[in-house]
């Protein structure tokens, strides 16, 4: 990361936290003058200073080192979505890719199809929204019928599966963090 980008990131996080340079400098064990120089890009903070600033802002150190993204890399046009078939189930990736800690996709189940042969679990936390239903959800041994517009939060390691008993395709928009397919 360029020094100017680091300076801007520190300034941005400080302002978002509603802190003055004097307040942050004091909490980070730096002089106000040094923090001012860092924020202007005229001084490069040591790793220890970065750790102290991060701690004072209650943010992970890696936040300062993350590269900025080009907005065009973050936008996924409908016609450009990645399509996947996994065990006969059609998935459409809504997220740009799998490099993030959060992935969002649309799962389409044809008439009579199920997401798996039996309920499965994964380490990710999941939130699902039924776009087209109804769909049967088995969650921790209990069966629920979800209609279009219904949603569910599935905790990590909770056994679950979806089954389409209707005569039409159903679709579910879901997000998982961390990604687990």
Automatic annotation (TrEMBL):
Domain HTH cro/C1-type: from-to ranges: 10-64
Keyword Transcription regulation: no
CDD domains given in the database record: cupin_XRE_C, HTH_XRE
Sorted UniProt keywords: DNA-binding
Gene3D superfamilies in the cross-refs: Jelly Rolls, lambda repressor-like DNA-binding domains
Pfam family, one: Cupin_2
Coiled-coil residue spans: none
GO cellular component, one term: cytosol
Any one GO molecular function term: DNA binding
InterPro entries: Cro/C1-type_HTH, Cupin_2, Lambda_DNA-bd_dom_sf, RmlC-like_jellyroll, RmlC_Cupin_sf, TransReg_Diox_bact_type
UniProt protein name: Helix-turn-helix domain-containing protein
Species name: Rossellomorea marisflavi
